């Protein structure tokens, strides 16, 4: 009987040990499976992070490439425009030279006798008056308005477009104060009573306006085409006298609108040419400049706002929320980078024409 009890006890002990080992094996397998899951999840998270970083890097590279391509396109367009102007100037010069040579041929055949020479002069006065007062074709160059010493005659200066006596629109040498160097500016004498000095003009996209600080400070382009007069010059003019501002706009259908401000003044270079003063608004284009009052002028690589100028690809008195960008890209389409005036159509649709003018008040 005792032998039977021993055998039963041993059998029970064996069964109990087997079950215990089975439970331990199940727990171990469960732990291993959990560790494998966490490892796989961590690897997936790492791969996701790497993909996100790569995607961000690719986007940044694409922005840089697009900007460089746009810059190169702008340079190419500028070179083509310059070559075209040079070609036109060369044609004008050739015509002027031919005319002068023709006049010279008529005037340089002196007779052998003194009394005959005097008679010839008398005949030439009657028949070839151009021998004495030749009409020379004027080429659109600032140098031709200077005298032989390279200076602009003082009698050719005007203090402002408002004081220009002929009241005809065109190019004039302007010297705002005795301390300023004269510059060639365009006076608009027809719109809104005349007396306006144009300081920004865009109408065909021939000039690249996505430029650096030095370009906007000193000015670029030509008064015969698209141009920017220059921040330093604009500051000195608006600091010397009170001025008002006129903004003229057209879309790609030719529809015209304007915005007019009773006062306009920008700060000095130290103040980063901030939009110091902007008066009350009147007009048809809507007031898309009010949010920019007090803002510093911003160009590529010089941005006090803290954002990226590449978002607009221009130069302006940008705010954190900007409603205008008249120095943006010349493009027909809805884009923050285009020439925009939000209240023109309550959108950022690109405009085809922009002209900014100031007048003494």
From TrEMBL:
Q: Write down the superkingdom of origin.
A: Eukaryota
Entry keyword annotation includes Signal: yes
Return the SUPFAM superfamilies for the record. Fibrinogen C-terminal domain-like
> An example Gene Ontology cellular component term from the record?
extracellular space
Name the InterPro entries on file: Fibrinogen-like_C, Fibrinogen_a/b/g_C_1, Fibrinogen_a/b/g_C_dom, Fibrinogen_C-term_domain
Q: Which UniProt keywords apply?
A: Signal
Whether Coiled coil counts among this entry's keywords is no
Name of this protein: Fibrinogen C-terminal domain-containing protein
Q: Which species does this protein come from?
A: Anopheles melas
């Amino acid at each position: 009987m005792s032998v039977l009890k021993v055998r039963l006890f041993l059998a029970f002990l064996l069964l109990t040990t087997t079950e215990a080992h089975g439970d331990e094996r199940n727990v171990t397998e469960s732990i291993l499976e959990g560790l494998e899951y966490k490892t796989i999840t961590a690897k997936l998270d790492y791969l996701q992070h790497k993909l996100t970083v790569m995607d961000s890097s690719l986007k940044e590279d694409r922005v840089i490439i697009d900007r460089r391509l746009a810059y190169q396109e702008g340079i190419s367009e500028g070179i083509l425009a310059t070559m075209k102007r040079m070609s036109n100037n060369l044609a004008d010069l050739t015509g002027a030279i031919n005319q002068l040579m023709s006049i010279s041929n008529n005037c340089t055949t002196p007779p052998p006798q003194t009394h005959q020479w005097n008679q010839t002069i008398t005949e030439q006065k009657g028949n070839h008056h151009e021998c004495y007062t030749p009409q020379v074709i004027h080429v659109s160059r600032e140098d031709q308005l200077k005298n032989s010493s390279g200076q602009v005659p003082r009698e050719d200066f005007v203090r402002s477009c408002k004081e220009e006596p002929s009241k005809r629109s065109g190019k004039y040498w302007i010297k705002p104060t005795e301390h300023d160097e004269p510059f060639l500016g365009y006076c608009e004498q027809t719109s809104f009573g005349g007396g306006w000095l144009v300081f920004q003009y865009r109408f065909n996209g021939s000039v690249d306006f996505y430029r650096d600080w030095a370009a906007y400070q000193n000015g670029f382009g030509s008064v015969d085409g698209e141009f920017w007069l220059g921040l330093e010059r604009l500051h000195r003019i608006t600091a010397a006298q009170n001025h008002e501002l006129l903004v003229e706009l057209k879309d790609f259908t030719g529809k015209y609108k304007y915005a007019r401000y009773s006062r306009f003044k920008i700060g000095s270079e130290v103040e980063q040419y901030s939009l110091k003063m902007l008066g009350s608004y009147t007009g048809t284009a809507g007031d898309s400049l009010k949010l920019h009052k007090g803002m510093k002028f911003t160009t590529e690589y010089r941005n006090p706002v803290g954002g990226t100028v590449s978002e607009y690809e221009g130069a302006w008195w940008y705010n954190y929320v900007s409603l205008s960008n008249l120095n943006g890209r010349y493009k027909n389409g809805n884009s923050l980078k285009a020439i925009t005036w939000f209240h023109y159509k309550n959108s950022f649709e690109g405009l085809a024409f922009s002209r900014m003018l100031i007048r003494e008040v």
